[in-house]
Design goal:
By secondary structure, the protein is α/β, with parallel strands linked by helices. Helix content is 40%, strand content 14%. It folds into two domains: 20-158 and 312-382, Periplasmic binding protein-like II (D-Maltodextrin-Binding Protein, domain 2, 3-Layer(aba) Sandwich), CATH 3.40.190.10; 160-310 and 387-425, Periplasmic binding protein-like II (D-Maltodextrin-Binding Protein, domain 2). It has 17 helices and twelve strands. Strands 1, 2, 3, 6, 10, 11 and 12 form a seven-stranded mixed β-sheet that branches. Strands 8-7-9 form a three-stranded antiparallel β-sheet. A hairpin with a 2-residue loop joins strand 4 (144-145) and strand 5. Helix 1 (58-67) crosses helix 13 (340-350), helix 9 (237-251) crosses helix 16 and helix 10 (264-270) packs across helix 11. The protein is globular and about 65 Å long.
């Protein structure tokens, strides 16, 4: 097996790791804390036993007990107590539990929380027995802090371009574009069709808008944190080019700078906005609204490239907390959740895309051509930097993106402001 104490992969010099794991750690009160970079301990042999507490968020928390039936059959002497946690209160619930020493044995962990929790000495390093190389590289980045892996990617998501194939054909477009210029031209051409109002739906700033902009940053060869994770790199020529390109959709009237919330599916089905960028969950949404036969009226394609085709990688991880009183059984549960066949079953239950590349060989996942496009994009999808201050920094970036899209702020000025604010906040290392 490949050791989980890895060096970061490099793809066009994009992304970074962080030294957040070296921060002063508090640990659980009962164990006094330990070195976050200490070697991972092996897992004891034999079946899981005893009691395990598990936290999972949203729909996953509600559906997880069904997935665990197989784990209980394999390990009849274990009891697993699953607590569903609402996403909007999950972060505060975790940090409070970490401080109080009452964190669960195993939990679903948001990918942007990993570095923060490692800095609190809350997570155990992943044992070397886990085949980390079998997971998507971008997903591995999301669980890697300062060169050490904590937890395992549980499921992934990435974003593609959704488009109305019937409207594209009417506009004379028979093949999806592969570069930035082609995407813009396609949006303009589809906007000019009889039902068109806008060519493409893009988020014009506000919370989470960095998820729409960063793929273009990465595509241009840019980055927002240095390779060693010690400094921010928002102000760069590549990033300026990417943000200016994104802005052009609004300044040239191709994308709506003031879209109404929750109208993407409706506008897509009506043809008013025949293209948008989003994740696999939107397939069920548009097909449900469009009705019988609508699945044949749209397609998806990978993000167009400048230097590379890049997209945002999201999803969730699963990890074991420091101080667990049933640590070996906790890791056995994590191992079960990340098996290819179990990930396929999870896909069937909640449509979560498997993080283990082997699961994509199963016909259940591979038979749908649209899912295969997501599979292709996952090869060049990037997780956000694993730095402890990311949530605070990216909120400043979102605010600047809004001024760029809605008020015509010069992209260079927006990036310089973000750079200055980010440097003041720091990386947390």
């Amino acid at each position: 097996m490949t050791s989980t104490r890895i060096t970061r992969r490099s793809l066009a010099g994009i992304g970074a790791l962080t030294a957040a794991g070296a921060l002063a750690a508090c640990g659980r009160p009962e164990d006094g804390g330990s070195d976050p970079a200490a070697p991972a301990q092996p897992i004891a042999e034999g079946p899981a036993t005893g009691e395990l507490t598990v936290w999972a968020m949203g729909a996953e928390g509600e559906a997880l007990p069904e997935l665990l039936d197989g784990f209980r059959e394999e390990n009849p002497e274990v009891t697993v107590d699953v607590t569903p946690v609402p996403w909007d209160s999950a972060h505060d619930k975790f940090t409070s539990a970490i401080a109080a020493g009452t964190a669960p044995d195993v939990a679903q962990i948001g990918s942007t929380w990993m570095s923060e929790f490692v800095s609190l000495n809350a997570l155990e390093p992943t044992p070397d027995s886990f085949p980390i190389e079998d997971f998507f590289p971008g997903a591995v980045e999301s669980v890697t802090v300062d060169g050490t892996v904590y937890g395992i990617p549980w499921y992934v998501e990435t974003r593609l371009v959704f488009y109305r194939t019937d409207i594209a054909e009417a506009a004379g477009i028979t093949e999806p574009p592969t570069d930035w210029e082609g995407l813009f031209a396609m949006a303009r051409a589809m906007q000019e069709q009889p039902d068109g109002t806008w060519g493409i739906a893009l988020q014009p700033g506000g919370q989470g808008s960095h998820q729409s902009v960063l793929p273009f940053v990465w595509s241009a060869g840019g980055a927002v944190v240095s390779e060693d994770g010690t400094e921010f790199t928002f102000a760069s020529a590549q990033n300026e080019e990417a943000l200016a390109y994104y802005q052009s959709y609004f300044t040239d009237g191709v994308a709506n700078p003031t879209p109404a919330d929750g109208t993407t599916e409706q506008d897509f089905v009506s043809g008013a906005v025949p293209m948008f960028i989003s994740g696999p969950w939107m397939m069920a949404a548009v097909e449900g609204l469009g009705g019988e036969g609508f699945a044949e009226k749209y397609g998806v394609f990978v993000m167009p490239q400048k230097e590379i085709s890049a997209s945002y990688l999201g999803g969730a991880n699963v990890g074991v907390f420091q101080g667990s009183e049933n640590r070996d059984s906790a890791w056995k549960l994590v191992e079960y959740l990340t098996r290819p066949e179990v990930q396929v079953r999870w896909f069937e239950i909640v449509a979560a895309l498997p993080s283990h590349q082997g699961a994509w060989e199963d016909e259940t996942v591979a038979s749908n051509a649209k899912f295969e496009a997501f599979h292709t994009q996952l090869q060049t999808a990037f997780a956000v930097p694993t730095i402890a201050t990311w949530e605070e920094v990216v909120a400043r970036f979102d605010a600047q993106i809004e001024q760029v899209c809605k008020q015509g702020l010069d992209p260079a000025e927006a990036l310089a402001t973000t750079q200055s604010e980010a440097q003041t906040i720091g990386t947390g290392s």
